[in-house]
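Box 3.1 A note on notation
Throughout this textbook, protein chains are presented in two layers. The first layer is the amino acid sequence; the second is a token string describing backbone geometry. Keep the layers aligned when reading.
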Amino acid sequence: MTGFLNIDKLRGDTSTYVVNCVKRLIRPALGKTSCGHMGTLDPLASGVLPVGVGNAARLFDYFLKKRKTYRACFRFGATTDTLDMEGTVTVGGPVPTAEEVESVLGGFVGTIDQIPPKFSARCLGGKRGYELARSGAEFELPAKRVEIYSLTLLGQTDADEFEFEIVCSGGTYIRSFARDIAEKLGTLGYTTALRRTASGYFTEENAVPLRLLTEENWQNYLIPTDMVLPFAVMEVEDERYFHGVRIPAEAPDGTYKIYREGSFYGTGIVEKGTLRPDKKLC
């Protein structure tokens, strides 16, 4: 059995904790099958956390590249060393108006180079940023190129706090936006709340809270692997393919969902008239 459980992660839970809970739930039915999340969420963030069950966990790299949507609250006029509520607060700078905030957002839309927070899992010299930061080391993380599809001001939630919706590529650091928007406005800023509302196919509408899952009902929430893959369907009859052999294919180049006698098998890639196996996902 393979597929995805789209978990609505609670604030405070780690992504690893969620995966371990899923493993315990599915073990009576599947034994020690593979299981893994499709893109981590910070402990202070809530929302969509897809967990791959069985061979679906092999799609980690694919989902890292998918478009993500977040709702975030940023507080201005202060910051923290972690750029979120966990850090040590430093006060300084004015609180902008909604009009001033709105005026700078367009500069962050498109392809941008973003510097990750120092307290992040980004590596430098073989060490995580948060490890270096906790040790008191002086360092700068290299910028990362990301794609921002939209950045929308939703409203003002407090005298010094504003709420935003951000649609972006995988790998974007939302906490960096609080810092960078504040810098454009000549002040300081940090993230006070963060929720992921969508990750590719997975949305908060089709997510389930972990507390509702049991050993008896989790299979009712399992999303079939082929349902979430946006590739064209290809039925393969040549048995050589299922033994790792490339076979001729009269189809445009690209990735396909491969079916064997009507059942989903995995993904294959067509290149110049040849179909080669990619991932077995059944």
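The CA atoms of residues 120 and 130 lie 5 Å apart. The radius of gyration is 22 Å.
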